[in-house]
Design goal:
Elements lengths: L2 E2 H8 L3 H9 L7 E2 L5 E3 L1 H15 L4 H9 L5 H33 L7 H4 L1 H23 L1 H12 L3 H23 L5 H15 L8 H13 L1 H11 L3 H12 L1
Antiparallel strand pairs: 1-3, 2-3
Helix pairs in contact: 3-4, 5-7, 7-8, 9-10, 10-13, 11-12, 11-13
């Protein structure tokens, strides 16, 4: 059975304008277009649109969705399992936030005691989960299971004061790195200050510090595009490379 673009829009909730745009960028081509220019879609395109909407719900960029769906190495089952895992992760995070809100309400009513650490537990857990999903395998391979678990435990057990300090240091680091990246004549002292801030930030979760480990981590900022993207998006293109070079020079 074939569906007109209007029927496809009504069935999916996606506007005809969006469907035309998906056609233009080759993300969702109709199964055929007649001589009058009317688009028609088959069940194959219906299934593909469903997959596109799954990824859109997970905030994937259209270019990334196109790359994923065009990959011959990924079956529909594999794609659906990816959707499922991401949704379960999001549900678990929401459950944690609901629990935190419930405890906070009870705390303000005087029904329970709540430590300062507990007030931030859900947010810390979310940060750990995000880091695990993005970098867990690479970090464990480079530093070992024990070191990573120690860092995670330090993060979860961090006091409210230390948590705020760490966030403030990271913000200052990003701002200084951004300014440094924009300078035409970059000064050695500015680079040293950035390295000092990065070291201080790391020491909130590292049980022991060594310049070798610091430099090894810096190399990952360039070797792994996800690290590069993190710093380049926050402090401008080239920021990850500048941070890595500064650490290698002055750590």
């Amino acid at each position: 059975m074939l569906y007109s673009i209007k029927q496809m829009a009504q069935m999916s909730g996606v506007s005809t304008r969006t469907l035309r745009y998906y056609d233009e960028i080759h993300l969702l081509k109709p199964t055929k277009t007649n001589e009058a220019g009317y688009r028609f879609y088959s069940t194959v395109e219906v299934d593909r649109l469903q997959q596109i909407l799954f990824y859109r719900e997970l905030n994937f960029k259209l270019s990334d969705i196109q790359r994923i769906l065009s990959s011959e190495s990924q079956s529909i089952q594999s794609i659906l399992h990816t959707h499922y895992d991401a949704l379960v992760e999001e549900r678990n995070h929401i459950d944690s936030l609901i629990e935190a809100v419930e405890h906070t309400i009870a705390y303000h009513k005087g029904e329970i005691e709540m430590s300062n650490e507990e007030k931030f537990a859900a947010f810390k857990k979310k940060r750990i989960e995000e880091n695990e999903n993005k970098f867990g395998e690479e970090i464990r391979e480079k530093y070992g299971e024990e070191a990573v678990e120690e860092a995670n435990q330090s993060w979860m057990g961090m006091s409210e004061e230390s948590y705020k300090e760490m966030q403030e240091i990271e913000s200052e680091l990003i701002e200084r790195l951004k300014q440094f990246n924009q300078q035409k004549n970059q000064q050695k002292e500015d680079a040293k200050q950035i390295v000092m801030l990065h070291k201080k930030w790391l020491q909130y979760t590292w049980s022991t510090y060594s310049s070798e480990a610091h430099k090894s981590l810096a190399d990952m900022y360039i070797a792994d595009e996800r690290f590069t993207q993190y710093y380049d998006e926050k402090a401008g293109v080239g920021a990850a490379q500048l941070l890595r070079d500064s650490i290698l020079a002055y750590a």
